[in-house]
């Protein structure tokens, strides 16, 4: 301890780590279980090693989650150690966020020094989408952390020409593949090109290293997939969101080509969409007039995000989904997993439908206009990642000028610059132009290279500013463009932001502009190089003030997540969260509900007293229809159609055989299982209808008179007409208040509500 010196650098680093820890961990309980689909999967994985290994989505091991295992294994281990709770499954992601900040600091410092490293770490720590992903059980920031470690070893491999470092780097990418599949390969161009152009080893040796490492990469990436696919299908869960019950098809289908080419944010096949266009269209047509009638709503839920169709209307196919909460950590738990809301119209909203509360929405490639300006345009992507993007581009240009970025690439600074820009550019192009499926929280993948190039660029632009000539204008130009982008973002949300937040943002942008203007004037006055004395100190102070000015707004947007909580299905922070939180107290009352929902509770009690030796306590249409009940009770519930009902897992004859064997007795019809319609029709025709008074708390649905009025008028009971919804948004009232008496927390199962569902008893149906 005596040898540890508490320098200003270490103090600054400690402060940044503390900021990251506060943003990621503070008030984490308001997030509830995060995404209920994944949370139910983690609880199911704790039931047996079989469920753990195959990443089962339900305690009975009927169907798996639609993602690879590693991220959820880590969550399950955390839940095993600390007990299953919202906090224990969110802990790994929050910790990964803090670790990522430290790793980024280390990588940047190694080549570019402590000032660049500190600025980079701070930019990453306060990037809104990065904070949002850290406070949710989506596993993207576990992947980000893994890829940062991979780049740390790549940097050494490129500098020293050492095979062992390259091998470790690509092994880590393979590990990342087992967290989020092909998303991990987005850094492959950076790794391969950076190592290939390095000069520390002969070209033939580098090629040999890359070939051998690639073989290892593929082996590590596919080891779990091969292991699962080698197991007979009868001895493992169905591979969720696959078309042929194999992980390999899941990799290249739903989690592969569909991310590149699909233009639908549809219902099936797991978070993000559907593989089957016909089924999706059928679902939308069949559900627009029925399922949206009784969409649930958690009146007290701070994160009750309403999934709205593009444009924010509540019309056909666009029922508003509320994130319910259940269990002891039920604060901001999503009752609709990623992708569920999208199929009903597509976008994530938080009470207002998008920026500024104007009903704007659309967060997939097919729902936002493709082009270089997509991330800056008025949509739900806009305020998540662009805060430091212009600064990173200006910074890269400045660094490339100073370092003379051209062959030979014989220094670690040159190589690291190539690494960061090749991490950033492919992702920027993908997210700007793809028409495939993606969610706004995927943008967290861009946060590390943007933060790194921003921190690196500040120091290089300062170096150029001190010199005479045209290059000196890069620094004030970068700050001015940054300020303009911040004003653009503010314009999207100005009408709904709290006055204090709006004032702080305007003051910060003004500080940035004023400092930039003074930098320009000062540079015009002082035409010689700024090297010593008061001249350089004054300019340095102006640069610091301008930097502070561009840090305030993203920091404010990120801190909104600490107070208001993020959407469980599609986590996002930024001004969108801050603006929507001002429209009603539901965003502030973040504690959620303790205990089970009354409707789930009564059905659970019914099953406790009536289920005998059946293998499955209940059959529901989809995973997200049973997620909340699995979280609350841990009962063996069969999600007949997988994630959202689009998986064709059982034929009618197979289902009948299970009924005959006594493995299935109770079936809850309704919901989103359109691919299992033949089975549900048979159940309704042959099963015995259980009176609602035995399993449904009819008093929790509120005033029957109100319900009947809504039905008689033909309105959507949750969202009402488009005009009513828009009126609610514009006058700043909480839509929860309008519907609380109609369906008090009637989220039932996965957001579909129980008013449209019926319970059937199949005992004795088949002799």
TrEMBL record:
The biased composition feature labelled Gly residues covers 265-275, 312-321, 340-364
CC annotations in GO:
plasma membrane
Q: Transmembrane segments in this chain: where? A: 12-30, 89-108, 115-133, 139-156, 163-179, 210-228, 385-403, 439-460, 472-493, 505-525, 537-557
Q: Where is the composition biased (Low complexity)?
A: 276-311, 322-335, 698-707
Q: Which residues form the Putative mannosyltransferase YkcA/B-like C-terminal domain?
A: 603-686
What GO biological process terms does the UniProt entry carry, in alphabetical order? Answer: lipopolysaccharide biosynthetic process; response to iron(III) ion
Q: Where are the stretches annotated Disordered?
A: 261-364, 690-767
Keyword Nucleus on this protein? Answer: no
- Span of the secretion signal? none
The EC number(s) this enzyme carries: 2.4.2.43
Q: Which GO terms describe its molecular function?
A: 4-amino-4-deoxy-L-arabinose transferase activity
Locations listed in the record: Cell membrane
**Chief location of this protein within or outside the cell:** membrane
Keyword Metal-binding part of the UniProt annotation: no
Q: Report keywords, A-Z.
A: Cell membrane, Glycosyltransferase, Membrane, Transferase, Transmembrane, Transmembrane helix
Q: Provide the Glycosyltransferase RgtA/B/C/D-like domain boundaries.
A: 66-224
- Report the membrane topology from the UniProt record: Multi-pass membrane protein
Q: Where is the composition biased (Polar residues)?
A: 716-731
- The protein depicted here goes by the name Undecaprenyl phosphate-alpha-4-amino-4-deoxy-L-arabinose arabinosyl transferase
This chain's source organism reads: Clostridium luticellarii
Q: What is the lineage of its organism?
A: Bacteria, Bacillati, Bacillota, Clostridia, Eubacteriales
């Amino acid at each position: 301890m005596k040898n540890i010196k508490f320098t200003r650098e270490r103090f600054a680093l400690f402060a940044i780590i503390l900021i990251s820890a506060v943003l990621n961990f503070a008030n984490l309980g308001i997030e509830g279980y995060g995404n209920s689909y994944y949370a139910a999967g983690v609880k199911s994985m704790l039931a047996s090693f079989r469920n753990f290994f195959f990443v089962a989505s339900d305690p009975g091991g009927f169907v798996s989650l639609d993602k690879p295992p590693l991220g959820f294994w880590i969550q399950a281990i955390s839940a095993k150690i600390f007990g299953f709770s919202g906090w224990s499954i969110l802990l790994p992601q929050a910790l990964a966020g803090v670790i990522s900040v430290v790793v980024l600091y280390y990588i940047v410092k190694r080549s570019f020094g402590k000032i660049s490293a500190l600025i980079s770490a701070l930019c990453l720590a306060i990037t809104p989408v990065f904070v949002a992903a850290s406070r949710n059980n989506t596993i993207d920031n576990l992947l980000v952390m893994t890829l940062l470690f991979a780049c740390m070893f790549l940097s050494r491999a490129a500098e020293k020409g050492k095979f062992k470092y390259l091998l470790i780097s690509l092994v880590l990418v393979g590990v990342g593949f087992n967290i989020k599949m092909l998303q991990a390969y987005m850094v492959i161009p950076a790794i391969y090109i950076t190592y290939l152009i390095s000069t520390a080893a002969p070209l033939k040796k580098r090629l040999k290293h890359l070939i051998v490492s690639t073989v290892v990469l593929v082996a590590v990436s596919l080891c779990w997939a091969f292991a699962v696919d080698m197991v007979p299908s009868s001895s493992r869960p169905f591979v969720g969101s696959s078309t042929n019950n194999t992980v390999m098809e899941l990799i290249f289908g739903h989690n592969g080509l569909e991310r590149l080419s699909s233009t639908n944010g549809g219902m099936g096949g797991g978070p993000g969409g559907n593989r089957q266009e016909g089924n999706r269209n059928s679902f939308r047509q069949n559900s627009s007039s029925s399922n949206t009638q009784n969409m649930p709503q958690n009146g007290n839920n701070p994160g009750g995000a309403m999934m709205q169709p593009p444009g924010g209307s509540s019309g056909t196919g666009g029922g508003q989904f509320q994130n319910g909460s259940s269990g002891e950590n039920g604060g901001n738990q999503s009752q609709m997993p990623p992708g569920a809301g999208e199929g009903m119209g597509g976008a994530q909203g938080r009470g207002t439908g998008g920026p500024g509360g104007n009903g704007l929405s659309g967060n997939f490639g097919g729902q936002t206009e493709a082009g270089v300006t997509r991330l800056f345009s008025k949509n739900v992507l806009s305020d998540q990642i662009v805060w430091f993007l212009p600064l990173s581009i200006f910074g890269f240009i400045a660094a490339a000028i100073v370092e003379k970025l051209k062959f030979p690439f014989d220094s670690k600074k040159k190589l690291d610059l190539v690494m960061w820009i090749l991490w950033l550019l492919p992702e920027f192009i993908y997210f700007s132009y793809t028409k495939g499926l993606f969610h706004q929280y995927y943008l967290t993948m861009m946060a590390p290279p943007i933060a790194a190039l921003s921190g690196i660029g500040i120091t290089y632009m300062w170096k150029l500013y001190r010199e005479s000539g045209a290059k000196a204008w890069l620094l004030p130009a970068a700050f001015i463009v940054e300020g303009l982008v911040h004003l653009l973002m503010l314009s999207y949300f100005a009408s709904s932001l709290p006055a204090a937040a709006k004032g702080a943002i305007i003051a910060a942008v003004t500080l940035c502009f004023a400092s930039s203007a003074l930098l320009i004037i000062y540079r015009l006055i002082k035409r010689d190089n700024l090297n010593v004395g008061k001249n350089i100190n004054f300019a340095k102070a102006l640069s610091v003030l301008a930097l502070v000015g561009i840090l305030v707004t993203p920091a404010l947007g990120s801190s909104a997540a600490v107070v208001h909580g993020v959407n469980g299905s599609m986590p996002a922070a930024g001004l969108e969260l801050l603006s929507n939180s001002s429209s009603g107290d539901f965003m502030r009352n973040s504690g959620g509900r303790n205990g089970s929902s009354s409707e789930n509770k009564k059905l659970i009690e019914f099953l406790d007293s009536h289920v005998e030796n059946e293998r499955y306590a209940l059959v529901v249409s989809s995973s997200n229809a049973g997620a909340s009940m699995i979280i609350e009770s841990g009962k063996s519930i069969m999600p007949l159609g997988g994630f959202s009902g689009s998986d064709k897992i059982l034929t009618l004859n197979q289902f009948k055989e299970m009924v005959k064997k006594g493995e299935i007795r109770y079936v809850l019809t309704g919901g989103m299982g359109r691919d299992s319609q033949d089975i549900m029709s048979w159940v309704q025709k042959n099963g015995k209808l259980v009176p609602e008074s035995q399993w449904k708390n009819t008093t929790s649905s509120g005033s029957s008179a109100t319900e009947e009025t809504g039905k008689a008028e033909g309105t959507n009971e949750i969202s009402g007409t488009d005009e009513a919804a828009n009126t609610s948004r514009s006058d700043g009232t909480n839509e929860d208040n309008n519907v609380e008496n109609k369906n008090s927390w009637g989220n039932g199962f996965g957001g579909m509500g129980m008013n449209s569902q019926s319970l059937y008893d199949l005992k004795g149906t088949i002799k």
